[in-house]
Amino acid sequence: MITRFKMLVFVFLALALVMTVLYLMTREDEVIVPAMKTLSADSEYMLYRRGDDLTVLGEGKLGLFYGCLTGYRDIGGRRSNGDGAISFILKFKNGISLTISSTNTEIFQFYVDRVYESIAYRSDAYAVNCPVSLLGLY
């Protein structure tokens, strides 16, 4: 037999769980929003292959890639056109880096790492569909 107290505890815990899930689903990403505000088409980057921070593959300005990047969406909307994903890192002088995943034709996913006062922060992953030609990766 379920006592009234047990029923109240169950209802309270179920409500707390629902509220937590709703909060997590609707919260603003505290890393990507301010990071994207500091970047622009004129932001200069250095490009590395993920896992090899010693070899610079290229450098330049974000240019048209920035416009495509600002159209990011939830990772659930990710569509990859191609096989064999490779990851690259775009590092900026302001402590922000973008880790991007790409095929030979498009960049389809990224996340932001930001170092602020010696503390590292990472955003959620987001989906994009940007041609790699905008960065000249291949």
SSE layout and pairings?
Layout: H1 4-26, H2 32-38, E1 44-49, E2 52-61, H3 64-69, E3 73-74, E4 86-92, E5 96-102, E6 106-116, E7 119-122, E8 126-131
Task: Provide key terms for this protein.
138 residues, eight-stranded antiparallel β-sheet, 3 helices, 8 strands, elongated
Mean pLDDT: 83
Number of helices: 3
Q: Could you give the distance between the termini?
A: 68 Å
Helix content: 25-40%
Largest sheet: 8 strands, antiparallel
Overall body shape: elongated
Low-confidence stretches: none
β-strand number: 8
| Radius of gyration from CA coordinates | 20 Å
Share of residues in strands: 35-45%
Helix and strand sequence? HHEEHEEEEEE
Structural class: alpha+beta
Could you please describe the fold and organization of this structure?
With 138 residues, this protein is α+β, with helices and mostly antiparallel strands. Helices cover 26% and strands 38% of the residues. The protein has 3 helices and 8 strands. It has helices spanning 4-26, 32-38, 64-69, and strands at residues 44-49, 52-61, 73-74, 86-92, 96-102, 106-116, 119-122, 126-131. Strands 1, 2, 3, 4, 5, 6, 7 and 8 form an 8-stranded antiparallel sheet that branches. It starts with a helix and ends in a 7-residue tail after the last strand. The model has no long low-confidence stretch (mean pLDDT 83).
